[in-house]
From TrEMBL:
Lineage, top ranks: Bacteria, Bacillati, Bacillota, Clostridia, Candidatus Alectryocaccomicrobium
Organism domain of life: Bacteria
Name this protein carries in UniProt: Pentapeptide repeat-containing protein
Organism: Candidatus Alectryocaccomicrobium excrementavium
Pfam families: Pentapeptide_4
Membrane-traversing stretches: none
Amino acid sequence: MKIAPPALGELRPATELTERARRALLLRDSVEGLSFERDALEGVEGERLDFSLCRFTRCRLAPGTVKWLSFTDCVLENCDLSGALLRGASFWRVELRDCTAAGADFSECSLRSVRFQGVMLRYANFSRTRFQAAQFESCCLDGAAFYEARPKGLAFSGGSLVEAELGGMPLKGIDLRSMDIRGVRVVGGELAGAIVSPVQAMDLARLLGVEIRD
């Protein structure tokens, strides 16, 4: 699976992230070609907010209610998205590196060419999210929800899905061997065709009520 990297060019250092976002909402403009460090995006509300060709380093990103929110060709590094309301947002060619996004709401998002690297995503919500070339590398997804997610292109590499909610997400062809999947929760045939290790298969058999005997 090929994931296209962000096409970042030369960026201009900037400040006052929240005010720039509010101005863009008001003028129906985008925030583009800027680099923010130790800044914050908080409490902005409106119809549409687009970030393009931006880098965020050690920023707090917790927008309010934005009907259409998009990140295109962006890098988020060491950022805090804990509890962020990102429902329905669009992410295209985006990398999140060493961020904290515990409890963040990514439900109904569109994730195209998105890479999560070393991100804390405990109890994050990916319900009904569309994955198109997305990868989780060494991420903690314990207790995360993937109800009815559509994994057209989704990969996991290291990390954990302990007690994650996978109901309604087809896992056919997805390799889970590098993941800790103890206690994952399913409601039907989601695991059909998933790639697992022998040890994982035994744990899953117990989960599904299969009695293993010599």
